[in-house]
């Protein structure tokens, strides 16, 4: 039995499935889901994320959290990470903040992770990093206290639905089975979607994406910090406004892969709609900051000074690796402008670090 067989059997029984259902099955099937059965990160996996590229990423995010905790008056708080990978970001964040007075003494760490494989990897990474680390599979049990919530490359993996404008109106893009090849294929549901946009002329072929899961999860996180205090920091690749194009993609062995081939054995993601995330946060009574480009955000947090300090004790080889990693994170031609950073706070009077434009940026 394979996941592809399971998907095909479901389609034969129930008809074409949505892109959202397909993503959910591919990534989270309890037996064959991509994130359930393997460690996809690093050079031996299918892709590499910012914390694995250079240690300053997690260190600066840790400093960001500690700074916000200080601005908020200190006291008991939880540091929460959604989809924490191998635990590298949290390890770096905790190491960078261990000398900040009283921060760790007041801190509980909560890792939100559905994958047993990754939970084990995180445990070994973090076993000596902090005295109070808990694991949960969902956000259902967030501590009833201020939470500093980190979501790095989390929302891009949440399921989306896709709609296509045709000459007959808007229809949903779904996954069916090609009769001749017996392979999975995209097709349009006959019953389309009626959009409440009578005044808009959407060109034929336009694809509109929507992630109900992203809206629901962010809404719940915002409700929590609105009630108990705290903040949310989300870093992902995405866009502001309507993308109006297909952003669904698969990656396997560090290369792009056909999204309908080998389901469950490739990572599936879609670009994040930051405008919608902003709207959700504001509708739940929170203050929104950004999004700003990842490169600008890290530079404002002191990336260059941190690299300079690390280079003082680094070998020539280590120094070259640090410089190359930092460049990859910050350079606008690499991850620096592709990835965006959005901050959300319960306290409307605070502007978190990294979201203040300096005078030169304002002048530009």
Q: Any descriptors?
A:
single chain; 364 residues; alpha/beta; Rossmann fold; 2 domains; 8-stranded mixed sheet; 5-stranded antiparallel sheet; 14 helices; 16 strands; 37% helix; globular; disordered C terminus
Can you tell me about this structure?
This protein has 2 domains: 3-29 and 160-209, no CATH class; 35-159 and 211-356, Rossmann fold. Strands 2, 3, 4, 5, 10, 14, 15 and 16 form an 8-stranded mixed β-sheet that branches. The chain is globular and about 65 Å long. By secondary structure, the protein is an alpha/beta fold. The chain has 14 helices and 16 strands. 37% of the residues lie in helices and 23% in strands.
Characterize this entry briefly.
The protein has 2 domains: 3-29 and 160-209, no CATH class; 35-159 and 211-356, 3-Layer(aba) Sandwich (Rossmann fold), CATH 3.40.50.12710.
Count of β-strands: 16
Q: How would you describe the shape?
A: globular
Number of domains: 2
pLDDT averaged residue by residue: 90
Q: Per DSSP, what share of the residues sits in E-state strands of 2 or more residues?
A: 15-25%
Radius of gyration: 21 Å
Largest sheet: 8 strands, mixed
Structural class: alpha/beta
Distance between the termini: 58 Å
Helices and strands, in N-to-C order? HEHHHHEHEHEEEEEEHEEEEEHEHHHHEH
Number of helices: 14
CATH fold-type name of the largest domain: Rossmann fold
The CATH level-2 architecture of the largest domain is identified as: 3-Layer(aba) Sandwich
Helix residue percentage: 25-40%
The top level CATH class name of the largest domain: Alpha Beta
pLDDT below 50 for ≥5 consecutive residues: which ranges?
Answer: 359-364
């Amino acid at each position: 039995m394979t996941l592809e067989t399971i998907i095909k059997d479901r389609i034969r029984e129930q008809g074409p499935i949505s892109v959202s259902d397909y993503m959910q099955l591919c990534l989270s099937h309890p037996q064959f889901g991509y994130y359930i059965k393997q460690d996809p990160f690093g050079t031996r996996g299918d892709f590499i994320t910012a914390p694995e590229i250079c240690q300053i990423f997690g260190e600066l995010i840790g400093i960001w959290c500690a700074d916000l905790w200080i601005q908020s008056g200190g006291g008991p708080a939880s540091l929460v990470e959604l989809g924490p990978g191998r635990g590298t970001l949290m390890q770096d964040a905790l190491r960078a903040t261990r000398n900040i007075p009283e921060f760790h003494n007041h801190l509980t760490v909560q890792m939100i992770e559905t994958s047993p494989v990754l939970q084990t990897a995180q445990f070994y990474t973090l076993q000596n990093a902090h005295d109070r680390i808990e694991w949960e599979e969902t956000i259902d049990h967030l501590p009833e206290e201020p939470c500093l919530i980190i979501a790095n490359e989390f929302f891009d993996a949440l399921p989306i639905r896709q709609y296509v404008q045709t000459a007959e109106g808007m229809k949903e893009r779904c996954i069916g089975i090609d009769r001749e090849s017996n392979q999975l294929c995209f097709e349009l549901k006959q019953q389309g979607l009626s959009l409440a946009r009578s005044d808009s002329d959407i060109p034929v072929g336009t694809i509109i994406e929507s992630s109900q899961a992203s809206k629901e999860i962010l809404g719940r996180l915002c409700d929590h910090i609105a009630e108990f205090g705290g903040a949310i920091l989300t870093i992902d690749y995405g866009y502001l406004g309507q993308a109006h194009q297909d952003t669904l993609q698969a990656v396997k062995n560090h290369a792009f892969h056909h999204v309908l081939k080998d389901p469950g054995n490739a990572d599936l993601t879609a670009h994040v709609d930051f405008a919608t995330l902003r709207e959700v946060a504001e509708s739940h009574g929170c203050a929104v900051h950004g999004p700003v480009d990842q490169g600008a955000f890290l530079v404002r947090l002191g990336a260059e000074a941190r690299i300079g300090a690390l280079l003082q004790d680094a070998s020539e080889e280590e120094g070259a690796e640090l410089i190359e990693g930092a460049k990859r994170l910050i350079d606008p031609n690499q991850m620096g402008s592709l990835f965006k950073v959005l901050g959300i706070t319960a306290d409307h009077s605070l502007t978190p670090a990294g979201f203040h434009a300096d005078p030169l940026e304002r002048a530009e």
